[in-house]
């Protein structure tokens, strides 16, 4: 299986807590005004990477135990990413994904496209919703605009409603907006 990829960051510290491998997928239909990554929008751009190539890069840095899917829109390629996510979770990696869709929209999409639900079920945290320029703030933790939520996926699936992820106290190093 292959993923259409815009780029990768093999030692990111801004796409979730800790040192992370970040996979930026190619293709996004949301076209948010003010998007920081508009070159990732065309679905036919980027580079095709096999799951094996991605895993080889993740394994290549022994200090990395966390992976973030970003974009582009990861949930527009859910089939290969659900397989990748299951492999990574099986190996004990912490897994986050960004999406321009809300959690509720993704749950509805999963009824028609099972891989959407399979990918959601593997995540520790979903950062959901489109980037909104009018709600942009540099003081937000791991997200660009105040409408976006850090959804604690295991807690949310257990509760049947959105539970917002709370960072460990030692990670908060500056005043934050919630
Ligand atoms: S969802 Fe993300 S990548 Fe897609 S247009 Fe919005 S900000 Fe850009």
Automatic annotation (TrEMBL):
The UniProt record lists the keyword Lipid metabolism: no
Domain of life: Bacteria
EC supergroup of this enzyme: oxidoreductase
UniProt feature coiled coil, ranges: none
Keyword Lyase part of the UniProt annotation: no
SUPFAM superfamilies cross-referenced by the UniProt entry: Radical SAM enzymes
PROSITE patterns on file: RADICAL_ACTIVATING
UniProt cofactor(s): [4Fe-4S] cluster
Keywords from the UniProt entry: 4Fe-4S, Iron, Iron-sulfur, Metal-binding, Oxidoreductase, S-adenosyl-L-methionine
GO MF annotation: an example: metal ion binding
Reactions accelerated catalytically: glycyl-[protein] + reduced [flavodoxin] + S-adenosyl-L-methionine = glycin-2-yl radical-[protein] + semiquinone [flavodoxin] + 5'-deoxyadenosine + L-methionine + H(+)
Xref: Gene3D superfamilies: Aldolase class I
Pfam families reported for this sequence: Fer4_12 (PF13353)
Stored InterPro entries: Aldolase_TIM, NrdG, Organic_radical-activating, Radical_activat_CS, rSAM, rSAM_sf
UniProt EC number: 1.97.1.-
Role according to the record: Activation of anaerobic ribonucleoside-triphosphate reductase under anaerobic conditions by generation of an organic free radical, using S-adenosylmethionine and reduced flavodoxin as cosubstrates to produce 5'-deoxy-adenosine.
Sequence similarity: Belongs to the organic radical-activating enzymes family.
UniProt cross-references to PANTHER family, sorted A to Z: ANAEROBIC RIBONUCLEOSIDE-TRIPHOSPHATE REDUCTASE-ACTIVATING PROTEIN, PYRUVATE FORMATE-LYASE-ACTIVATING ENZYME
Protein name, entry field: Anaerobic ribonucleoside-triphosphate reductase-activating protein
Higher taxonomy: Bacteria, Bacillati, Actinomycetota, Coriobacteriia, Coriobacteriales
Gene: nrdG
